[in-house]
Amino acid sequence: MGKKQQITLKVNGEDWEVDVANNTTLLDVLREDLNLIGTKEGCDDGSCGACTVMINGTPALSCLTLAVECNGFEITTIEGLNKDGPLEPMQQSFIEKDAVQCGFCTSGMIIGAKHLVDNNPNPTDEDVRERLSGHICRCTGYVKAIEAVMDGALKTRQSR
Amino acid sequence: MTKSVVGKSVTRVDSFNKVTGNAYYTGDVKLHGMLHGKILMSPHPHARINNINISRAVKLPGVKAVITSIDTPQKKFGIFSSTRDQYPIAYDKVRFVGEPVAAVAAVDLETAEEALRLIDVDYEILPAVFDPKEALQEGAPQVHEEAGHNRCLDYTVTYGDLNDGFAKADLIREDTFKTEALAHCQLEPYVAVANFLPTGKLEVWVPSQSPFTKRAALARTMQMNLSDIRIHAIDIGGAFGGLSEMGSAEFCAAMLSKKAKRPVKVAFSREQTMIAYRQKHPMEITIKTGMTKDGLITAKDIQILADGGAYQSTAGIALTVPLIMFLGLYRIPNVSYKALRVYTNKGPRGAMRGHGNQQLRFADGAQMDLMARELGLDPLEVRLKNAVQTGDVLLNGAKVYSCGFTECLEKVAEKSGWKEKRESSPGTLKGIGIGTGIHICGFDLGIRSTSGAIIKFNEDGKVSLLTGNIDNGQGNKTMHTQIAAEILGLPLEDINIICGDTDLTPLDPGTYTMSSAYISGNAVLQASLDARNQLLTIAANELNVGTSELEIADGRVFIKENPERHMRMKEIIWAGYKAGKHVIGRGEWRPSNVTPVDWMNGKIDGQPTKAYSYGVVVAEVEVDPVTYKVKVTKTTAAHDCGYAINPKAIEGQFEGSVAFGIGQALSEGFVWENGRALNAGFLGYKLYLAEDMPPVESIIVESEDPFGPFGAKEAGVTVSIAAVEAAVNAVQDALQAKFDSIPITPEKIQQIITKG
């Protein structure tokens, strides 16, 4: 376990101070210390994408990220997307396109998709598939998720 | 009757929570004082346990409980009383890699893991057997010595006269096909939380397909009263057959909680989820088929050898369900079916999407195309020629009350451009293939065959709907809410569904046997009708009219001839309270005249299921001549789901099923070495990804079953079954070759191509 050290994080706009061991993952800090359970653990080896969060604006696998490496960083989780009330366009599109079945992969997928669209407002089908290939989904066959990301991109463009 | 809610693509009742991170799964449960449990699993495929020394583990600071078999009631579990052969924690022997041996609860995960390393197990390693054929040989290691052999199920059933059937054939062909063990790969790893209370009651949270099944097995293995155990409703991250039975996570969490007097969470890793619970049966299937020169099937002689792994699990169902469904797809006058399931020192094989049905459909369908090729026939025409039709009485005496199979075949052929593409494909590395699927909608499960539902109106005129059925992600909650909303004239948001809580909700078959729409849906329908009648009676009394003069819609009851005279739901409910009446609808439904099956002997005569659903898939593929990889370029899927209660959700079932099916055909499968799965994880076990996924053209066929709610039957699984066969046949077409095993990996294609 070893000695713990204090780190600061800005998570979904809120400042936190947490004591973490050297081997504590960011995923554990989010779920266990901050009770942000929307981020899921599906594999614990970086292969499924369910734990994807935004670190300083870049999507990352929180199960492979050590918390100590995140000292001072800004983190966005699924809970941060509609913090101020209305759903983000991408969340709305996942609902409307029925891209959610069991929902276990959804948080990570939406974070990844939102990042894609924020940086590439007009993604091609190939761009979307490439992004979503970092997220395993056993229920949907990805078809409606791909539709949802395209629709989320459209809604995002329209909202700007 | 015009319908306003069913038959429409509606927003799922649970998707808001899932896109905002508010869905609540078992791994999210956090109770005061909760400990972390870990299970020590056998590293050996077969060994005697001479001794387990836990003294070092117990002394580790932070460890609150350690259990081995001697701390438990040592009761075996299994799905039938005659097949209880598995201890939740190994007693004297371990029979597969991953079998639980001991469990620890500690203040944190690291301490629990450290404690596992301090448990000393004295194993006497025994010779192991991994191949089902070797397991049948004289002198093979005995997985269960007391049985005296490794056969855990062995029967032959014959209908008609095989000799006569083969005598009428112009072509007789015999082939053997093999499938690999598969993992369900629910994205949620297996996990359970248990809290054993000082009152002697036990609270459990666990992903499941039937909380009532899990409760019964827990009560038996814990030696507790059934009603002292409560399994809570919880969001579930996928199931696919893999959560049908009790497992060691909930058992160990419960025993540890009892001993430590604190709540305990036991979470499996991804690898443990894949190897230590249940897998799909690998099968070796030999089929001898007789066919006339114009494609009529005259006889089928089928022999299945299934590798059951170390325990019975769903043996009888996995081997007999394929027979029930085999008889319901094609009209075959003479059938012999030999089922043999053997024990080996591998993880237990149980239910997974279609049970053994999918393996048999792959083998039968792949051979059907080979025979069509030999006879110069169109595989589609062969299927059409032999297809079962509505009203058919099958060889076992079962009647087919609704069947949209032919319509599925015709529509898929038309939409996919089958005829033109068949003609243009020879000589290229492009291929097109067809596959078919069938599934039953429920079978006799004893007392659990009857689903119950309750509609409870609240003071504000809104509804709590209680059903014992659950939602693993397929959309059952939304479907059942739609049914209630339709009958009660309420918007979806006025109905709050509570499902799968053993203390609150009535008994239900659970989400397997594909009965959620057909059986549980009917129970919800009956409960809604009962509540509706009560509403109408109260309103009729208040409005001074007969109930037949009333209509219910848009959250109110009104007089048909004078819609201005109406009462809102809340007004009716309040009027009821004032008159001493609560509006509580009850519903129960069990398909009538369904015959119990003798699963261990394959006796399926009568009506083993009341409804059959059908699916057809056409897959188009391209084989890469350099990498030998197969790309599925397009799929077209049709499915007779009876009636589409939520069409968009059903399309989602098609798409997920296509991914499931083509993944099984082309990439999924365990790789073994001495009983160890070498690729138990998403890095080695190749699932279909977004970049691999072909477009799916979905065609909903509605045969309107006379008994299903609004005519509905099962939705989705037949497509996953058909997709395997379609993908295999497309690759066979592309290379004009035979593939006798799945998955069809690039290595197998390389062998075919380089062999010329």
Characterization of this structure:
- The complex is a heterodimer of chains A (160) and B (756).
- With 160 residues, chain A is of the alpha+beta class.
- Chain A has 2 domains: 4-79, Ubiquitin-like (UB roll) (Roll), CATH 3.10.20.30; 89-158, [2Fe-2S]-binding domain (DNA polymerase, domain 1, Orthogonal Bundle).
- Chain A is 36% helix and 18% strand.
- Chain A is built from 6 helices and 5 strands.
- Chain A has a 5-stranded mixed beta sheet with strand order 2-1-5-3-4, with helices on both faces.
- In chain A, strand 1 (4-11) and strand 2 form a beta hairpin.
- Chain A is globular.
- Chain A starts with a strand and ends with a helix.
- The model of chain A has no long low-confidence stretch (mean pLDDT 97).
- In chain B, 62% of the residues are buried.
- Chain B has 3 domains: 15-22 and 446-589, Aldehyde Oxidoreductase, domain 4; 31-126 and 189-239 and 243-275, Alpha-Beta Complex (Aldehyde Oxidoreductase, domain 3); 279-444 and 597-755, Aldehyde Oxidoreductase, domain 4 (2-Layer Sandwich), CATH 3.30.365.10.
- Chain B is an alpha+beta fold and 756 residues long.
- The radius of gyration of chain B is 27 Å and the shape is globular.
- Chain B has 19 helices and 30 strands.
- In chain B, strand 19 and strand 20 (463-467) form a beta hairpin.
- The interface between A and B is large, with 54 and 58 residues.
Features:
heterodimer, A: alpha+beta, Ubiquitin-like (UB roll), DNA polymerase, domain 1, five-stranded mixed beta sheet, B: 756 residues, alpha+beta, Aldehyde Oxidoreductase, domain 3, Aldehyde Oxidoreductase, domain 4, seven-stranded mixed beta sheet, 24% strand, globular
Write the layout of secondary structure elements.
The complex is a heterodimer of chains A (160) and B (756).
Chain A: E1 4-11, E2 14-21, H1 26-33, E3 52-55, E4 58-61, E5 73-76, H2 78-81, H3 89-96, H4 106-119, H5 125-132, H6 143-158
Parallel strand pairs in A: 1-5
Antiparallel strand pairs in A: 1-2, 3-4, 3-5
Helix pairs in contact in A: 3-6, 4-5, 4-6, 5-6
Chain B: H1 15-19, E1 35-41, E2 47-53, H2 55-59, E3 63-68, E4 93-94, E5 100-106, H3 109-117, E6 120-125, H4 132-135, E7 151-159, H5 162-167, E8 171-178, E9 191-196, E10 202-205, H6 211-222, E11 229-231, H7 248-260, E12 264-267, H8 270-275, E13 279-280, E14 283-291, E15 297-307, H9 315-327, E16 335-342, E17 349-350, H10 357-375, H11 379-386, H12 405-416, H13 418-424, E18 430-440, E19 451-457, E20 463-467, H14 476-488, E21 495-499, H15 516-543, E22 550-553, E23 556-559, E24 562-568, H16 569-578, E25 584-589, E26 612-623, E27 630-640, H17 647-666, E28 672-673, E29 676-677, E30 696-701, H18 717-735, H19 746-755
Parallel strand pairs in B: 1-12, 10-11, 13-17, 15-16, 20-21, 27-30
Antiparallel strand pairs in B: 1-5, 2-4, 2-6, 3-5, 7-16, 8-14, 9-10, 9-12, 14-15, 18-26, 19-20, 19-25, 22-23, 23-24, 26-27, 28-29
